[in-house]
Amino acid sequence: MDILIVSAASIGAFALESWASSAGLVDAGDAARGAFAVIVGVLTTLAVVRHRGETWSDLGFKRPARWSTVPLWVVGILGAFVASQTLAPKLLSVFIELPQPDFSRYDAIVGNLPAAIAMALILPLTAAIPEEIIYRGFLIGRLEAVFGGLAAGPVLAVAVQSLVFALIHFAWGIGGILLAGIMGAIWGTAYMLCGRNLWIVIMAHSGGHILLVVGLYLS
């Protein structure tokens, strides 16, 4: 039920945003498309969590066991992210013809330093933080409950949230959906391995976004 509530709120917000954009009532630009749905989704998630009597710690917002290990975790997760994004397409291209991700919606930051800096600052607030709350902190836990006491429950939860995370990036095209799925698997696995600490994964996710912005700017 919790998953359905958050899904309905997010889909409804995206539909409203799309209608407002097509009607000329709102024009936030292609790069910001979907941000309203993400914000509504995370606010709904937080409301559901509080309604259930859960704490922010249950969602993953907790102190790390050892602060000294946080930088190591972040660098390690970010390294796994970069390696997966680099190697996975090459390996898959041996078996299938993989189209390039469609990042045309971000063309405005190519060679535009002020726009690139603005996006690098905004993305953690509109993407990294809310996405980690919804897909890792909330969805993985709820999916584990759905799978009950299965020994493979945590693995299935990470896999399903990766699929959902991939599909919500449909605007990136087939190639982008695949890369987003890999991203979801990396962030989800990291969340489980680091003791379900959302702060660590948020920092790594934000670092991944900065690398993406730098790449788009230089392209």
Task: Describe the model.
- It contains 8 helices and no strands.
- It is mainly α.
- The protein has one domain (61-218).
- It starts with a helix and ends with a helix.
- The model has no long low-confidence stretch (mean pLDDT 90).
Nutshell version of this structure?
This protein has helices at 2-22, 35-51, 56-59, 70-92, 113-146, 153-167, 173-193, 198-218. The protein is mostly helical. The chain has one domain (61-218).
List the helices and strands and how they pair.
Layout: H1 2-22, H2 35-51, H3 56-59, H4 70-92, H5 113-146, H6 153-167, H7 173-193, H8 198-218
Helix pairs in contact: 1-2, 2-5, 4-7, 4-8, 5-6, 5-7, 5-8, 6-7
Summary keywords:
219 residues; 71% helix; mainly alpha; globular
Point out poorly predicted stretches: none
For the secondary structure, the number of strands is 0
The fraction of residues assigned to DSSP E strands is under 5%
N to C succession of SSEs: HHHHHHHH
**What sort of overall outline do the alpha carbons produce when their principal axes are compared?**
globular
What does the main sheet amount to? none
The average pLDDT value, as a whole number, equals 90
Q: Domains counted in the coordinates: how many?
A: 1
Helix content: over 70%
Helix vs. strand class: mainly alpha
